[in-house]
Design brief:
Purple Acid Phosphatase, chain A, domain 2; six-stranded mixed sheet; five-stranded mixed sheet; 6 helices; globular
Length: about 230
């Protein structure tokens, strides 16, 4: 099975990769656009270049993108795990357009014998963005995910944030991965997913294998991953 993985497109719908067919599309978050204040307002009010998108803003944008999303899916399933910049669930609208779309948030979806589980949560960074949670809640969410994993309920983890120390170095040289996720997979005896799909840290897009667990960070990029038939 050919899996098209992309992440952190922030309102830019990717196109299929020319010459590479896919059987499934997986987005690991930050699909929807931010807001961009006018330059004069940025300077006057000392605003950052971009602001979090509102649900209404993101829905309006999505409803103008039907042709692009239908072309991207090409009749194949579309699995979506939200990211910290996603404030609107696109799945119902994608389904209106005939796309077989699924929101993976803390649920298992099976495609061609492969089972996918979504984990959108990111470490707390001030609470401006979505799915930011503090350590006690993060541990609880991870315990729930590990319960599914250890009962052999899923094969592929789709998490917006990478584990700490794995494809998580930003432009400023700091690492922003999920330390609780790293700790969950650190013990040698602990079970790990067969594949970890993520994004979030734009500067560290790439693929790396950690203790037999391939990690694909597709932030601002796209790639086709080949999964064996099951």
């Amino acid at each position: 099975m050919n899996l098209l993985h992309f992440s952190d497109s922030h309102g830019r719908v990717p196109t299929p990769i020319e010459g590479q067919d896919h059987d499934l599309v997986v987005c690991s978050g930050d699909l929807l656009p931010d807001r961009y204040p006018r330059k004069a307002d940025r300077e006057r009010y000392n605003l950052p270049y971009s602001l979090p998108g509102s649900p209404a803003h993101q829905e309006r944008w999505l409803r103008t993108q039907q042709t692009r999303f239908v072309d991207l899916a090409r009749g194949k399933p579309f699995l979506f795990c939200p990211g910290n910049h996603d404030f609107f669930d696109p799945v119902p609208i994608l389904r209106e357009w005939g796309i077989e779309a699924y929101d993976l948030t803390e649920r298992v979806v099976e495609v061609a014998g492969w089972r996918f589980y979504g984990f959108p949560y990111c470490p707390w960074a001030g609470g401006v963005y979505n799915y930011e949670i503090k350590p006690p809640e993060m541990r609880g969410r991870l315990d729930s995910m590990l319960g599914f994993l250890h009962s052999d309920a899923f094969d592929v983890l789709v998490a917006h944030c990478p584990p700490f120390g794995v494809l998580d170095t930003a432009k400023d040289g700091q690492q922003y991965g999920n330390t609780a996720m790293r700790d969950a997979f650190a013990p040698e005896e602990n079970r790990r997913p067969l594949l970890y799909l993520c994004g979030h840290i734009h500067a560290s897009a790439g693929v790396k294998t950690v203790r037999d667990m391939p990690v694909s960070n597709a932030a601002t990029t796209k790639r086709v991953l080949v999964l064996p038939d099951r």
